[in-house]
Fold each of these.
Amino acid sequence: MKLAGKSAIVTGGTDGIGKALGLALRERGVQVIVVGRDKGRLALAAAEGFDTLAADLASAQGVDAVVRALDGKAIDLLVNNAGAGASYDVSAPVDLAQVDRCIFLNLVAPIHLSTRLLPMLRARPQAMIVNITSGLAVAPRAGSPVYCATKAGLRSFTMALRAQLAGSSVRVLEVLPPVVETRMTAANSHRKMPVGECARQIVRAIEQDRDEANVGATRLLRLVYSVSPALARQIMLRY
């Protein structure tokens, strides 16, 4: 995809990977709309020159707000990036309300946005849906079963949607990042990829019209999985 002159919407675009990706896309000449729920970070994004949309995508109302705000606009690139984890350990009480919000934000919202914005994307000469999953979509980590399940579900959805849209003007890219240095991973002690480098690799995958982008250390995980899925799962369950 030639990015200059295109328009993009990036969910979770006021922080972390989404913010870095918005900056990287803008450097390529893309008009970027960022979606977030934190008023302070939205104000900072607006001060940096981004168009902003306030919406909590962990709810159906948030999805409705985005779709309404985009009515009549031309969008070439939908980036489903917003995501969050949910604490889940059966040795202690589980907050199922938090679990439900995680499932909606990470899985339901991308499906709804992809579906409801698809007519808009199909109207463009060249368009793309970019779904940010995770290396944990390939092999789960024992400490994050709900997060892993949502990312695995989004991976399956992405693959099937790509097959349905084959031959159309809308491409579907899945991005599988490793652990990236963001606010969300602040407590993670593992080696982290710089967020700017992650964004750079995502933009390159978009420009190359790729179907899948295994970013950073995820490439090694995919290699191990291709040789022995059982070994990959064993490694990641202990990660």
Note: The first helix runs from residue 16 to 27.
Amino acid sequence: MPSLKEIKGRIASVNSTRKITSAMKMVASSKLHHAQVAIQNMLPYETMLEHILKSFLAAEAEAHTIFDKVRPVRRCALVVFTSNSSLCGGFNGNTIKMMTHVVDDYAREIGRENVEIYPIGRKVYEKAQKMGLNVQGEFSALADKPNAHDCIKIAMELGKKFYDGEIDKVELIYHHFKSAGSQILTRKTFLPIDLESELNADHERDLTSIIATKESQEYLKKRGERQQEKEKESVKPLNDNFLVEPDMDTVLSQLLPKYAHLLLYTALLDSNASEHAARMVAMQTATDNADELLRQLNLQYNKGRQQAITNELLDIVGGSVNN
């Protein structure tokens, strides 16, 4: 059995660790709130652009641009989103694991050297370099400070390569942010753009709460379902009488690149919010574990102290009896 001094040292050590994890949880919670606000600021643009594209599809526009043309894959690119730092649970590990599986799948079909990697985040950049993959640049700054300008640059570079025939397919690997307690690892085709699947994709997000407990998530889910039912009852048709000039094909050839830029920026914001949510949950779990460990150590310390007092009393009583 460890001595009281050793137990007291462990209690002090666990207390110090708990302070760190608790502080990191609060910092991640604050950053998550800012990430949710960034997604909220992007949503009006996304909603209107999707509405316009859906309206054109409903009008049965048979427009075929270079960006939505499917062709045989001889060379592909993967845009993979991770974080720059650790302590966020399985966030980085799961993303890198999926990237490895996708690279292996393509390696059997087109060869490992024909797979290009665009790493967003230091963790995936270091892993791709270690694996000897064909890394196209280093974009770690975007993982900490997402901005649309740099996303458009990457999207334009990918679009140019796709247009020139240098690559035949581009995929995104990232975490889709649904709520503070749920982030879904997603593999999505970026180019060629499949409007039907993209416009029918799951865009549900809870941007109002940073609570990650299971009970709270169930409550929020039920409340969200009730709100959706009310919205369906009170929904009003929008005016879709667009005047398309000069023609539908020309307009779509301008809209599709903008939609591609939006897809990349949305994936970045989702990944950023998912990172902070995963770190917040991981630090909350670590803090709870520290609390439980402190409870056990305090109990062990009190038992040891009580045993020492009992032994001293027995020594005193035994000495008096002998006298």
Note: The mean pLDDT is 83.
Amino acid sequence: MPETRFRLGDAQVAALARWSFGLGNAAPELPPADAYEDAQGVLVAVREQGRLVVVEVPRWRPPSAVTRQEARTAWVGSPPADPSELPAHVLALVPAAGTSADSAALSAAAAEWTAVRAGGREVELVFVPVTAAAPEVSWPVVAEAYGATLLGTRVDAQPAGHRGGAVLFFTGLSGAGKSTIAARVVELLVEEGRGVTLLDGDEVRNHLSAGLGFSRADRDTNVERIGWVAARIAKHGGIAVCAPIAPYASVRETVRGEVEAQAGPGSFVLVHVATSLADCEQRDRKGLYARARRGEIPSFTGISDPYEVPVDAEVTVETRGRSVDECARQVLAHLR
């Protein structure tokens, strides 16, 4: 039989590392598979005769590779406001609360510590991600395992959550103005110096989803692909702006779950561009609605196929009598 491989989430990888280093009481419960890899496709563990064997866990260093004779101080959470407080050897224990978004959180935390060294401080830093605000074993025990003494006065562990990345997910009928408003939102974000990526529905159809049709299954696949790319952008602190029609509530909910699993709670912003069907037909420059009315375009959203109006949108944009700039700034106001 062919080998089965399973891709682990970030929290699962971290739990695997902690267990392999003797900092957890039991092996993590993983789905049945012959081999396990991390989000980047790196092999981290295999099953040999039913037994879980850890191969390698990137980003983690076992205590045996860290412990030294020099005195080392462990810090839980972010670095101190005054870097001069740091000793020459530092162990940074950064809690990530056990969420599947811990990769984004840990990247942000690592950047804080890197900034300390960039400031000219001669600090030997070992960065240790810990996926719980309160680990299975106590902070002093974790620190001791790495040959460090815990500095208890700076235990400022906070659960990792939303760390700046976001997905602005526009939905609405064809011709509602989604792409136009989304493009203006991108312009305004660029003017502010924000990192932003536009995933326009038509462009994604032509490239990422080339070959898909317009059945419900194909439409869902197209939206899920957009959501997956957007989630990866948000996971690493960027802003993704998406503008598909996304007519079905179930797939919008799937995308919300994917984004928040990778980038944390609050990272998904559903924007309903609530232009009426009558207004969309009136402004239809391509004549698509007329063709759909004549039966020339099957499964056309709003005519022969349903559009499920969102009941969970963070922002509802009414376009009648309003400029594109006004609509775009309403969306941006939600990010502030």
Note: The chain has three domains: 5-54, 63-154, 166-335.
